[in-house]
Amino acid sequence: MLSSIPFALILLLSIPFETLAVPRPLTSAAGQFVTLKRRSQITRNESEWAAWAKGQRDAVISKYSKQRKRSTGVNLIVNQGLDSSFYGSVAVGTPPVAFDVILDTGSADLWIADTSCDTTCAGTGNFNPTKSSSFQNLNKDFEVTYGSGDAMGTLGQDVVQMAGFSVEKQMFGAVTTTSSNFLQNPVTGLIGLAWQSLAASGAMPFWQALASGGYWDSPVMGFQLTRFLNDSSAGDLEPGGSLSMGFLNESLYTGSIDYQNIPGGQASYWLQAVTDLKVQGKSIPLSSGVGSYAAIDTGTTLVAGPSDAIQAIYAQIPGSVPGSGQWEGFYSYPCGTAVEVEISFGGPSWTISPADFQFTPTGASSSYCYGAFYEIPTTQGSPPWIVGDTFLKNVYSVFRYDPPSVGFAALSEAALAMNGVNAVVPTPTIGSDTAIVTANSAMALRSTSGLTVIISGLLGFLLLV
Question: Which residues are catalytic?
Fold first, then answer.
């Protein structure tokens, strides 16, 4: 039957395989498109919001602090909501099984909750190594710490598939313990999309193995996120936007992508320099050089910055007052004030919607709301700014492998129309394309029939608070 089907022969013999991360191209030349979904807001009382705010600030301080190793354990409870949770699926093993995972450009490790994980692993359907014929136990402990919690287990390797691409021997953590409330159904793990230098495991991240091996048509990842923050009728799950790998979805942005290289070309976090910041039309004094660096982090919900800049921001908002207690580092202001923020990273200025700047009232009957920008202490060696989804919901964002850079573009009308829309929520799948791959060669044969579904076709991400 094979002789009756035309195939495209993809020659890979000239490309060296990456150690413990050998990618196999199971994709069309145009790349693959991945649908994201978002966990919507949770009703909270005032004290719960206060705990959330403290956890948010402590999480970012912990995540980017260089006073500890990323593999040390910090247990912080995560309250997810108000556009803070976006997640999708990858497939692991032979036969492949889909898992919902956090997608985080602020970290670089992949891990999945193991079936032996204790009660802290609350995801739907954990990874069972005995059910995968291709799994290899590396018999090495794994531990990684984030601002919002930690995960521990052992390292293994297996086939990992995402968005129509596959890495045969991807190293990842089979996690047996996580911080309390770190995972919430249906999420069962996390995939880091920062650079290998940040990986606690030392493994090359999935995306980097593909990009460095030339398996993408274009060495880019593109994100578009939806907004349901100001939609009182939002359900528990709503469509969250999309992630593309290997190409950019031109229907989701207008104009050109403004790329700015990572400062110094040192690829760890996806860093950009904040060169201009305006609030209500007035410029905010900013530091230069390393004092201006910002991590562009899909794993952080809000925007954290140095105290002097944050204080200057709220000084431009009449009636704003600093928070206290669990709200330390945050500021509140009259809810009726539409706060306009513009930010530049060396190119055009990008506007943050007032709906994203305002994230929750200070109380059930209060006329004051807390702002999405908050203070964190400056720590040597870590970026002073952490720019999360408060900003990223307002742009089409691109993370480029070569040269290492981040790009932004204005969202198209089609992308903006997805905000608050009543639509079907995407579900995990195992595959979106037909592919036949020889087991131990550098050769892949791709069917043109498009009938056999064997690999992961959906990917999304959860925003880590």
Answer: 104, 297
* Cα–Cα distance, 393 to 396 (Å, whole number): 8
**How confident is the model at residue 70, as a pLDDT?**
28
- Res 459: pLDDT: 28
Q: How far apart are CA 59 and CA 300, in angstroms?
A: 9
Amino acid symbol at 292: S
Q: Residue 55 in 3-state DSSP?
A: helix
The values of phi and psi at residue 352, to 5°, are -95, 125
What is the Cα–Cα distance from 166 to 92, expressed in whole angstroms? 10
Query: How distant is the alpha carbon of residue 308 from its chain centre?
Result: 28
pLDDT, tens digit, for every residue of 105-131? Answer: 999 999 999 998 877 776 557 899 999
Rounded Cα distance, 13 and 190, in Å: 32
Q: What are phi and psi of 82, to 5 degrees?
A: 55, 55
Candidates 212, 246, 294, 224; CA nearest to 27 is 246
The first and second tokens of residue 35, run together, are 């649908």
Question: Which has more pLDDT, 203 or 8?
Answer: 203
